[in-house]
């Protein structure tokens, strides 16, 4: 009986945990992307948070400067990213990524920010995603992020 009450209780709370998240696209390698509404208005730029659930585990680097092996890769199944989108310049910059071990985004274990020493001092493909770039409107994800932020 208690098991059924727990399941019922978790089902009732599920929609409230996702309140504010709006479907963005599933065109990112089969991943489901959501964005948080309302979008944060920071004046010249808009702050847009996205949440991505991956169909298979991906890997995220973690930097330990004093270790023998400086960078280790860890599996994750979902991530939340914060972007700044300049609607006039039509540019985008990734500001933060939080990686989760679970699909629901409840167990964060690695966070990378644009001002992290590891990001600023690296020229890796992972670090380059934090560089401000023009929006690519041929990319469905960029198009929909622009639409959500710059309505």
Summarize the structure.
The chain is α+β, with helices and mostly antiparallel strands and 151 residues long. It has four helices and eight strands.
List keywords for this structure.
151 residues; alpha+beta; eight-stranded antiparallel sheet; 4 helices; 8 strands; 23% helix; disordered N terminus
Describe the 3D structure.
The chain is an alpha+beta fold. It contains four helices and eight strands, in the order H-E-E-E-E-E-E-E-H-H-E-H. It has helices at 2-17, 117-120, 125-128, 140-149; strands at residues 21-28, 31-36, 40-42, 45-63, 71-86, 91-100, 108-113, 133-134. Strands 1, 2, 3, 4, 5, 6, 7 and 8 form an eight-stranded antiparallel β-sheet that branches. It is globular, with a radius of gyration of 17 Å. It starts with a helix and ends with a helix.
**Major β-sheet, in short?**
8 strands, antiparallel
Residue share in helices? 10-25%
Give the rounded overall mean pLDDT. 87
**Distance between termini?**
49 Å
């Amino acid at each position: 009986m208690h098991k059924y009450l727990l399941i019922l209780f978790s089902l009732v709370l599920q929609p409230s945990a996702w309140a504010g998240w709006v479907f963005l696209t599933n065109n990112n390698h089969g991943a489901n992307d959501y964005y948080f509404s309302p979008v944060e208005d920071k004046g010249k730029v808009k702050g847009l948070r996205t949440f991505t659930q991956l169909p298979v585990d991906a890997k995220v680097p973690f930097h330990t400067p004093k270790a023998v092996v400086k960078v280790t890769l860890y599996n994750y199944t979902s991530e939340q990213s914060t972007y700044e989108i300049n609607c006039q310049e039509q540019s985008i910059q990734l500001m933060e990524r939080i990686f989760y071990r679970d699909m629901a985004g409840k167990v964060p274990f690695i966070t990378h920010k644009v001002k992290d020493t590891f990001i600023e001092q690296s020229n890796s493909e992972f670090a380059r995603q934090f560089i401000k770039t023009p929006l690519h409107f041929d990319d469905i994800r960029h198009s929909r992020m622009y639409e959500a932020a710059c309505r």
